[in-house]
Amino acid sequence: MITTKAIEGITGILLIFLSIYILYFMDIIAMFADRVALGKLKFRHGDEYIFFLMLLGLGLFIGGFYLLKISVGMEVIKIKFLGLIMFAIGTFFIFQFPDSLSYQPGYFTSLALLIGFVFYAIAFYLLFFK
Hints:
- The protein is an all-alpha fold and 130 residues long.
- The protein has helices at 4-25, 28-38, 47-72, 74-96, 107-128.
C-alpha cells in the first residue's frame, strides 16, 4: 500500500526534475547568466515569458525539495546527496583522470582506478543501503 509520505516524496522528486527541465533544457539559466555577465539585464518585449518560466522553474524546485524534505527527512537527503557526490568523484577518477605518461608515472593511472572504484563502492552503499 502506498502511503501519503511516499506520494509526497515521489511528487517532490517529479517537481524537482520538472524544474530542471524548465531551467536547464530550455536554456533559461544560460540566457540570464549571459545577460548578467554582460550587464544587460533589461527585458525586451517577449522576455516576460522567459522570466515567468524561470520563476516557475525555481518555484517548482523549491516546492519539490520541500515535499521531499517533508516525506523523507533531511538526514536521508544529506546521505543520498553525499552518495551522489561520491559517485561523481569516482566517475572522475575512473574516466577523466589524466593518462599521460609524460608527467606522471604509469602506476598513477592504476591508483586512480582503485580510488575510483572505492568511491563507487562507498556511493553504492550510501545510495542503496543507508
